[in-house]
Amino acid sequence: MAVSQKDAAAKAAVLIESLPWLKRFHDEVIVIKFGGNAMVDDDLKRAFAEDMVYLRFAGVKPVVVHGGGPQITAEFERQGIPSEFRGGYRVTTEQSIGIVREVLAEKVGGELVQLINEHGDLASGHSGDEHNLFIGARRGAMIDGELVDLGLVGDVTKVNPERVLAEIGSGRIPVISTLAVEAGTDGLLNVNADSAAASLAVALGAAKLVILTDVAGLYSDWPNRSSLVSAITTTELEQLLPSLESGMIPKMTACLDAVNRGVPKAAIIDGRIPHSILLEVFTQSGIGTEVVAG
């Protein structure tokens, strides 16, 4: 069917709207934390992979960081292992850390690499413990004023980005799972994907950090839907952070940390929307909530 002149003009308008963003992000690194519903919905996974390929051919350098909570829980259930959570964190034992690594690096990361590589030999998968990419330290969780043990769960304390930089330099899209080497040992730690993505964005000198979520963005007065915030400064976010819904705090803390440590912009966006990454990066209005210094 022939495209009408009106439809062609509309398509041209969409393309030209992206010009300032193509210029701004050309040859720049953008770190994207892949999570939420986009990880478990086949159509959204495929759309996300297409977005990464589009960014790559548009001259942007995407780096993907992912967790895999639902997939880990499913594998635990399959093997008859109970999932225990304390303070919102999964308790990870010596017996289960190997399963966590396998699910993250091989299943979740492997599938995403495969989807991207349907468009060419573009993506490479990496576990955060390889080449000491992420070094971490154990953490606990505060519950009713008491610090409780989470086992092999930690925070990223150091990033060694050389291998990732080499992959970017060769034109590849690194897909990174969030395991870390425990400092001073050769053991593994399960680390939060939001904070790991922020730490990597800082280490890579990224132009932007984008975190996929299952909500439209940050609400200043949840559940009031009219309180969606399209942009917020670090000062404003620091004041708002203690009042946020618990599930949003790690994501907004990651954005705050990234911008405070030199990443120009960070955003949380609704990963339930197909091609949400392209809408965020290349359109005038963007989607979700953007955090900037100030």
Short structural summary:
With 294 residues, this protein is α/β, with parallel strands linked by helices. It contains 10 helices and 16 strands. α7 packs parallel to α9.
CATH topology: Carbamate kinase
Q: Give average pLDDT, whole number.
A: 91
Task: Quote the distance from N terminus to C terminus.
Answer: 50 Å
SSE sequence, one letter per element: HHEHEHEEHEEEHEEEHEEEEHHEHE
How would you sum up this structure, described in words?
- It is a single chain.
- The protein is an alpha/beta fold.
- The protein has one domain: 3-Layer(aba) Sandwich (Carbamate kinase), CATH 3.40.1160.
- 38% of the residues lie in helices and 28% in strands.
- The protein has 10 helices and 16 strands.
- The strands form 4 sheets. An 8-stranded mixed β-sheet has the order 5-8-2-1-11-15-16-14, sandwiched between helices.
- Strand 9 and strand 10 form a beta hairpin.
- Helix 3 crosses helix 5.
- It is globular and about 65 Å long.
- The protein starts with a helix and ends with a strand.
- The mean pLDDT is 91.
Write the layout of secondary structure elements.
Layout: H1 5-17, H2 19-25, E1 29-34, H3 42-57, E2 61-66, H4 69-78, E3 85-86, E4 89-90, H5 97-116, E5 123-127, E6 134-143, E7 146-159, H6 162-169, E8 173-177, E9 179-182, E10 188-191, H7 193-204, E11 208-213, E12 218-219, E13 228-229, E14 231-233, H8 234-240, H9 249-260, E15 265-270, H10 276-282, E16 289-292
Parallel strand pairs: 1-2, 1-11, 2-8, 5-8, 6-9, 7-10, 11-15, 14-16
Antiparallel strand pairs: 3-4, 6-7, 9-10, 12-13, 15-16
